[in-house]
């Protein structure tokens, strides 16, 4: 399938500490391991024309992976609406880390999507709470990330359709770190880890979860619902 | 508590068939029976200044009941955003019938909120599927509305937090007619019946459900969550 | 994968009207189309030793499909507990029609699982309400069964994890006809149609849904959780 | 309303460390603060005749609060079934701490209800994740218990209908500590804290949550569903 990885791609250009970790950008690191699954993986970034999110690109995309952080507001309303609509039309969406605050995710959730955060080298331990979920395939009871940004509850999202992972943070917080949401014809997976100053996307379990998430988010050939005025199927009595 | 009933109030002014049924407007009919619960009930309509939805009005409102149909697009973005934000801040919202397509509901749901419809005097039978829910208090196994507009699946909403009522329609369709959604600090109840050309809001069971819905949607004194940068509660080890 | 179809297999032996429709038994009809997916399909019936549900059989089963009706009580407690435990350990379970009242399903749900029913040649129209679900793959907006037993709400089950299909019945009822439940490591799909006196299991859409359900219910290689006394992972301060 | 508190009442009789904390038994401590809400509070214990759970007692009970730990297996099948059935008939149930392993809770959940545990004076921090829920009324973002037994994921329960609290434990685990489940006509609230060797039930926030839980679990006058053979409401065509 066609996987499009969208990255804001600003930190990497402005902060050597980030580009040292992700010399090809976060999108490059994500693309590297997603390619291993046989997907056709392409990337797009904020500073491209229309952010690399033209209609014809989205129309060809099965699953979009989104990473953004400091420039959410630079994504145009038009592009954000176009992506949202494409998700509702059936494109899968994997929302990573700080993309919780992206226009696209907020529009799809309808809530503020805010949370607590802290950059203090917290150890994070991500516990699985749904052993049946295909996104948890190949994962143990939990996995650890030695140092990460903390995200803490309350995470202002709708109650997820499925809750897969919960994070424990060294500094005392918890977080719903892996959650799914169905919206329209689209499947959305939010996954917490991935602050730009840590090598999180090289973590094997993190990669496994994202690979699973991309596969899970792919559209199946479901019913094509028609909306609007509908003729009766059964006879309606005269009243 | 303070209940604000918002009505588009156009059909009643333009169509005698509607004003014959609702001489004081749909908002007037809703206000009549909601007052019986001891609430302080006020009304607001589209053509008032800022649609009667000024910030100070919303700030004083515990639960907002919304009916709109043909003029959703005339509600300004500003007003719709203000109402949405107030719901996220804790105001309850009862969304009636064609308000499924209101800007406020669509923003809160994040989906298209579309459905099938037909104006053909379908008989509607509304079945309860959650006998524990306070919104179903005082209702039987089902209740019937002799003639109503049909709304049919697929109803393009997120999977509701709770599904309370399912409708059967004479013409062959079904519909998730009573459903709840929590968003931010706000509680939302969608209830299907109430096409303007039928006397649905005089139906005793319909009134009972709306009265229950208003009570249910009222904010409780829940946790006030803080967001943003957070100091650690526990000591974080040096790494 | 290994699919085991369990059938009570009494109606077919006692009632020619049923055996005319299902000369190889309902299990035979189910096996026929499930084999087309490349599964290794075997069958078992009530009157076999241990109902054909010995531990070693269940241990080799990936997904169990269950049909029962008039002899639920003849399934021994031991066998029902064994099947339940195997589901919790990860075997998928597809529960068909009157198996809503089977010991296994009731034990897994924890509720009465009762419903309304009527054998009166109702026309049934099954509407999809979740277009994203893999179990709805290949299905249209709805499909019809010309004549079926009616099952009506209230269906006394826990709120399903996912609601996929709703039925409309000619006689005036609705029903949650396709629903999923995760229990332990097992995935459960309940699907309503299939009264023994109708040729429902030859219906193409019914077959598609069951085939999808079997695939969906298969266990993924999820986390193997350990329970019981657990050593601390982090240092606990002296208090 | 009538609140019945059931306590195993063995630790208090056998272990002075427990009876020092709860000289009137855990049930006594629970009764003390629940009485403040104006309920008629009674208690029952394992060693009473029929465990104090005779049919006529249960029939008069609106909400049952259950604490048990070391003697779950001494509760007779008959009593456990009777309580389960009464919950399905509409009695509320508040399940505390180690009652996760009670026969009643396991029967109602249908799963193993197992978890990780450790008695090591972990600090527990209980975070609210649903600010709209009446059970969280009067609670802050989180509250702490200085020392408690640890319960860790995976907690082998069905996905709750509502998730209200998540626990952080000093030793590195997380837990879904406050969760609701609707079963039949009954509402069930599971709340984690309360190991017998700690004075947890004197903790103000713990008391607030339990008081809220009892109120929430009370039955509303919902639909009385009829089951079984049902005459058609609409005319069924001859086929």
From TrEMBL, chains A, B, C, D:
<dbReference type="Pfam" id="PF06283">
    <property type="entry name" value="ThuA"/>
</dbReference>
<feature type="region of interest" description="Disordered">
    <location>
        <begin position="220"/>
        <end position="239"/>
    </location>
</feature>
<feature type="domain" description="ThuA-like">
    <location>
        <begin position="2"/>
        <end position="217"/>
    </location>
</feature>
<dbReference type="InterPro" id="IPR009381">
    <property type="entry name" value="Trehalose_catabolism_ThuA_prok"/>
</dbReference>
<protein>
    <submittedName>
        <fullName>Trehalose utilization protein ThuA</fullName>
    </submittedName>
</protein>
<dbReference type="InterPro" id="IPR029062">
    <property type="entry name" value="Class_I_gatase-like"/>
</dbReference>
<dbReference type="InterPro" id="IPR029010">
    <property type="entry name" value="ThuA-like"/>
</dbReference>
